[in-house]
Amino acid sequence: MSQRTLTLYLINAGVDPANIVRPGADHHSITFVGTRAEFYVKVGDPHPPPWVSFFRNIGLDLTAVQVMSTSAVLVVPASRRLFAITFGFGRLLLQPGVADDRFGLRVTLNAVNHTQIRSVDRLTLDSPAPHSQIQASRAANIGDFGINIDQDLLRAVMGNPRDEALGKRLTGKDALRTTGPFTILDLPAILRRFLAESRKTEYRDHFPWVDNVQEVKSPTVREALDEILVDRLRSDDIDGIWLAVPERVDWQTIEGFAYSSAPSADRHADLHLRTFLSTFRDPAALTVDSLKHRRVYVISSENDATIEEWPAYQCLYAELTHAGAQYLLNSGMWYNVDATFRDRIERTFQRVPQRSVDLPTAQTNEAEPEYNRRAARMNGFALMDQRLIRYPDRNNPIEFCDLYTDTQELIHVKHYGGSSTLSHHFAQGVTSGTLFAQDPGFRRAVNARLPASHQIQRPANPLTRGAYTITYAIISGSAKPLNIPFFSKVTLSHATKVLNGLGYTTQLAKIAVV
Known about the structure:
The protein folds into three domains: 208 residues, no CATH class; 119 residues, no CATH class; 163 residues, no CATH class. It has twelve helices and 23 strands. The model has no long low-confidence stretch (mean pLDDT 89). The strands form four sheets. A ten-stranded antiparallel sheet has the order 2-3-4-5-1-10-9-8-6-7. Strands 11-18-17-16-12 form a five-stranded antiparallel sheet.
């Protein structure tokens, strides 16, 4: 019997069957044994395929070459739930938010053999290249894909099911794709099997971290979260909400920030939520749309021109509770965070020691390189900022640290920013710290860049455990104790775990601004 691939969506409970499919599709009824299904078909207008234009202007008549797109959805009841099976471009006929956005992933994780994974699709939080798909040349264990259980959000999995009656291969995301010798008469029974698989929790035995963080895909939930956010902002209840630079920037080129493109607009040394909110004369005028249309402008220190701009909504970071669940807004995306995972990360953050001696304060509008040069002069630190280590075993040069002390402390300095900015800051410390601890050749290369007063006595010898300290210093104008976005806390948790394992002492430092 020939193999057929089916794409299945589980319709959310309570959705009116009349609202599953967008209006405009032809409607037919199909009767199965003991049940009834609805079939929707939409046929597009004939049109020439895109490649026909390649033959234009050479006298070749291809007007008869026409194609048309077809979309179809079969809505089938099973075990008091509704399923949508899509064909062609049928997924485009479904109304947004009507389907369970984790059905396919749950079924696949429950049904596949955890040693028979073929590919994973992951989103790495706060990574410069966050989305990646990893395929194995042969079936492999999930651990072979290099998943970081704290930082990677699993979006899709393909694998071989333990029971071949479920299909030869399963791919799970929001929808479930299954390949097998299916006929239309098999549907009621196979849908009941998939529904049962989706209700199991066995996946937590091998994938317990999958529920740590989930992207919120439901338009209804996102709208509810946006409304809570706006209500909080209108009432000036901004605890757990702040404004921050959403991506890495070169602070040396920045004069300041503005909340209007007008030349007369006030300039600000940093982003502050309350200052931004003061630009709304009427708090009631603040809406989700206004947050998405209002811009934050980055002003050049060289020519007073705008060199970057973002929607204000993208610069907002928020932590809030809705319907008993925890949610985070980060870089314009909402995420649902498991409470147990959140509490573990918060405890880890609170345990990171604070530097016992304050670092020199930063001046308003002072760029990181300027601060580092001044701090080095004032305290007798070795200035390592921008003194890159070009090491043969690395494709890219490495910055050892920004400041190095005569007490063997590596200080990494960064202006406060959004989670991607700080996460990159922490990751840089892990990269240089790992090389410095494990590679004598790198230590010799570092020594060649250090002044004689700070050089390592025996760079070929392994590091003594506890002899070196890595300090993550963050320049912040806030009067409150240092707090950072949740996803940066996740990255910091991973960084301290790695660095402590290598024998370093790790600590945080807040650099005040005067």
